[in-house]
Design a protein that fits this description.
By secondary structure, this protein is an all-alpha fold. It has a single domain, classed as N-utilizing Substance Protein B Homolog, Chain A (Orthogonal Bundle), CATH 1.10.940. The protein has seven helices and no strands. The longest helix is centred in the C-terminal third of the chain and has 36 residues. It is globular, with a radius of gyration of 17 Å. The termini are far apart.
Length: 154
C-alpha cells in the first residue's frame, strides 16, 4: 500500500532533481509521480502539491531556512538535506499537515536519505521554524481577538 510518506519520498526525488536541473519537463515529472505512486490520485495530488508548493514558495522558504540554519548557507548544505528542509518548511508554513508531523516526517526522510547527522540537523532547523510560525499565528489570533473585542465595545 502506498502512503503519504511514500508520496513525500517521491516528491523529494523531484525536488532534488529540480534543485540540480531546473530545466526538467513538468509533464515528465507528473508521469513520474503517477507511476511511482501507482496511480493513487490522492497521493499523486499530495506529492504534486508538495513539489509545486516548494517551488512556488522557494524564495521565502530559503530565506527562513537561511535565518535558522546557524553557520550554514543553503549552498553548503547537502542537496538532499536542503530539499528535505524545504519540503518540511513548506508543510509547516503553507501546508495542512500539523507542524510536529511535518517535522517527524522530515526527520525520517533525513535519516533514510541523508548523512548520520542529517536527522538532528533537520530537526533543529525545522523546530525553530515551527516555533516562529506558531508564535506568529498566536500573535495574529491575539490581534484578531483584541480587534473583535474593541469592535464589540463600540
Amino acid at each position: 500500500m502506498t502512503t503519504r510518506r511514500r508520496a513525500r519520498e517521491v516528491a523529494l526525488q523531484l525536488l532534488y532533481e529540480d534543485d540540480l536541473n531546473q530545466d526538467r519537463d513538468a509533464e515528465v515529472s507528473k508521469k513520474f509521480l503517477h507511476a511511482r505512486l501507482l496511480g493513487n490520485r490522492p497521493l499523486v495530488r499530495f506529492a504534486d502539491t508538495l513539489v509545486t508548493g516548494v517551488i512556488a514558495h522557494r524564495w521565502d522558504i530559503d530565506k527562513s531556512l537561511s535565518a535558522k540554519a546557524a553557520n550554514w548557507s543553503l549552498r553548503r548544505m547537502a542537496a538532499i538535506d536542503r530539499n528535505i528542509l524545504r519540503m518540511g518548511a513548506y508543510e509547516i508554513l503553507h501546508g495542512t499537515t500539523p507542524g510536529r508531523v511535518a517535522i517527524n516526517e522530515a526527520i525520517e526522510l533525513a535519516k533514510r536519505y541523508g548523512s548520520r547527522q542529517s536527522g538532528q540537523f533537520v530537526n533543529g532547523v525545522l523546530d525553530q521554524i515551527l516555533q516562529d510560525h506558531e508564535s506568529a499565528q498566536a500573535d495574529k489570533q491575539s490581534e484578531q481577538t483584541q480587534l473583535a473585542a474593541e469592535t464589540d465595545a463600540i
